[in-house]
Amino acid sequence: VQLREELGKLTQDLEMKFKEFELRLDRCLTKQSLRVQKHRQVIQVYQTQSQIHQLEESDENSKNEEKAADMKQIAQAQDHSAHSDTDSPSGSVSASGSVSANGNIKHSTKKNVNDSSINIEMIQSKIANEEKIIEKISLEKEYQKFQEKISLLKDWINSL
Length: 160
Description:
Largest sheet: none
Radius of gyration: 35 Å
Number of strands: 0
Strand content: under 5%
Helix content: over 70%
């Protein structure tokens, strides 16, 4: 009889400790979830920055393409007028000036594309780092394993 009473006390004591452990585990999981949520928000910010860079890049490319097309039309018009009036040296100088301006536009476009690509790559590496942090933080799988162990131990205790 005394052994059964001691076994009952031990069982109650173990169940109480398991409940305390579950509560601590729940609090830990809640903290971890908040940290994961914070890092996911950081990822969203980085993704938004990346989208902004891509939009700026495409907007800048379209503007530069329009400028290049305008410069090409001007160069063709000047080239056409230079051919019709071969005695005028200013026409040929203007045409070559337009061509060099067109070349400068293409060069600046390439530089802006490279800068934007570098920014996007940098942001993507930051996103990858944040995802690694989230993987390290996340305890959901471990939490489930502990829950299973607790239930197995409770079953074992109840079987005694």
